[in-house]
Amino acid sequence: MFSRSYSTAAKGLKVSAKQTEGHLSNLIVKINAGSRYAEKDGVAHLLSRFNFQNNTHKSALRFAREAELLGGVYGSKVSRDAITLSANFQKEDLPYFVNSLADVITSTQFKIHELSEVVLPTAKHEVAVASADPEYQAVEALHALAFRNGLGKPLLYDGVSKATLDDIKAYASKAYTASNIEIYGSGVDESALVKFIGESSFESLAEGSALTDAVKTQEGESRIRSANGNAAAIGAPIAPAEIGLYETIATFLNETTNVKAAVHKYSDAGLFTVVAADACPVAVSATIKSVVSTLKSGINASEFSALTKTKLAIESESSPYTAEPTVSSVGEFSLGKFSYVAIGNVSALPYADEL
């Protein structure tokens, strides 16, 4: 696996940074507290939407206007592994954005009116958009089929398990601690970054304890009726050591077939997915049957190793907190057990035992 060196900042925070040419810097605060760790489904998603709301140092409006005046762009997103804050800005504005991101982590006020007027409406809109995409639905269903709890939990807040403001605040108190936070800078001097972190409210973080979740895998089949399109997908949980292999298989499939293959990488596991999607269920059926048959009969994807290495190197540059897997030459590969989901006009889509 790709290794990365860290410096130690305030409260023992892990800090990694590199200098780049040009006038722009990028700062990422990764909180290892994604959807897999929350006791209530979707709370991590709601917590991520509270980021950059009012805190004890400045209002959301003030921060937005100041960032715009400085030419900065910021964001917050959630994954199954982490909540990630990011900021892009002019190099000379590093102290401002270090302080601002620290304030988000340490002093967000969690106002009830923000939950009802901003956070919940934004989250519901994101869920509605995602749920209208059969490919997203397929990948979500495959996670639920392939993993128990943890990684099998929904990524976004669907409202099935109602979350209150107290639930969000309680999760923030567990998540936003020094043990769960890593900071990455690009276009940044590492010694300067460590210095500014030590002078910011990051210094007031509680030590806390790292959130944990044991991976438990399973298999299953699901059929979901939907009028938003058709998709048929397979998914197989994989160990970290297998990620490089499956990345090469995904490259092979994406280059030679009409499916979308991907490896969803997590801190201690991965999920290999293959999705066939089309407005026509007959076309989806033909595609998924053909691809699964090919994978079961055995393939040699070694000629795609070099392309995979290039792709992963590019991804590593844009996502510095993602370890770059080792890609070696791929010999004969045959697909083993997998989970399966059909979405759309399921009466016209195959069952798992027909693949």
Describe what is shown at a glance.
The protein contains ten helices and 13 strands. It has 355 residues and is an alpha+beta fold. The two termini are 34 Å apart.
How would you characterize the overall build of this protein?
The protein is of the alpha+beta class. It folds into 2 domains: 7-204, 2-Layer Sandwich (Cytochrome Bc1 Complex, Chain A, domain 1); 221-354, Metalloenzyme, LuxS/M16 peptidase-like (Cytochrome Bc1 Complex, Chain A, domain 1), CATH 3.30.830. 37% of the residues lie in helices and 21% in strands. It has 10 helices and 13 strands. A 6-stranded mixed β-sheet has the order 1-2-6-3-5-4, with helices on one face. A 5-stranded mixed β-sheet has the order 7-13-8-10-9. A hairpin with a 4-residue loop joins strand 4 and strand 5. It is a peripheral membrane protein. Keywords: Electron transport, Membrane, Mitochondrion, Mitochondrion inner membrane, Respiratory chain, Transit peptide, Transport. It holds the Pfam family Peptidase_M16.
